[in-house]
């Protein structure tokens, strides 16, 4: 019974014991900035090519072949299909994201941003990348946090009449994002080890042949079998380690550094838009709250 009791106590502590609000708030700011880069840099320039009357693939065709006429949450469905209305919806999403970054009306702006983003994704899912899917899940979890992500580092905090409000939160939303983050690494790792090119060590060689993603010409050394094997197998080691070692206090800081370096290297070598940056900012959730409290000590944010 003692063992069961300890497991139950740990489970309750993991999900509900109050923790510093700073990691979640720092993540909110970083995540929102990456989202803004995604909306302004990737959606806005080509928006009318995929939304509205001039879309290369009509919404009706997407609904008929992707959603099979099932009920789908899509606020764009209720708007006129002209370019002004369609662009207005995107600008509204950008505005909500700005409120989210600033932490203004976080309890309301966060779920609204999720619903607007969900509508954009459901209206034209053919343009989505994995970072879009991840961002949608993150906003869903944050929407259920009851404004906890805006408890500090926010305009809400500055405008609060209760300046002595605790900077502690229940970590449910934060834990959901952390678990989802590690689950993605786990699934990617399992998928990789089921394929022969990862086990034999040639995966990186083939990846560097995808010229459409090149940022620059790769050095000839990557054509070397030994270099390919080392990079391929080290990728498997890093991804497996991130699943487990981020949760262990002794190894957490090292894994944060390794994880950020890993994604920075991928972003440097492969042009995948903001995909890698959604993962980079998630490491902010694993930084100990005491670090943020030292940085922002005696500041009403």
Provide a compact summary of the structure.
The protein has about 300 residues and is an all-alpha fold. The chain has one domain (about 15-295).
Shape, principal axes of CA atoms: globular
The main sheet orders its strands as 1-2
- Radius of gyration, in Å, reads 21 Å
Count of discrete structural domains: 1
Largest sheet: 2 strands, antiparallel
Number of E strands? 2
Strand content: under 5%
In words, what does this structure look like?
This protein has 301 residues and is mostly helical. It has one domain. Helix content is 63%, strand content 1%. It has 14 helices and two strands. It has a two-stranded antiparallel ribbon with strand order 1-2. Helix 5 packs antiparallel against helix 6, helix 8 runs antiparallel to helix 11 and helix 12 packs antiparallel against helix 13. The protein is globular. It starts with a helix and ends in a 6-residue tail after the last helix. The mean pLDDT is 90.
Task: Tag the structure with descriptive keywords.
2 strands, two-stranded antiparallel ribbon, 301 residues, 14 helices
Protein topology:
Elements (H helix, E strand, L loop, with lengths): L1 H15 L2 E2 L1 H22 L15 H7 L17 H20 L3 H18 L6 H14 L11 H5 L8 E2 L2 H22 L2 H5 L2 H5 L17 H21 L3 H21 L5 H8 L6 H7 L6
Antiparallel strand pairs: 1-2
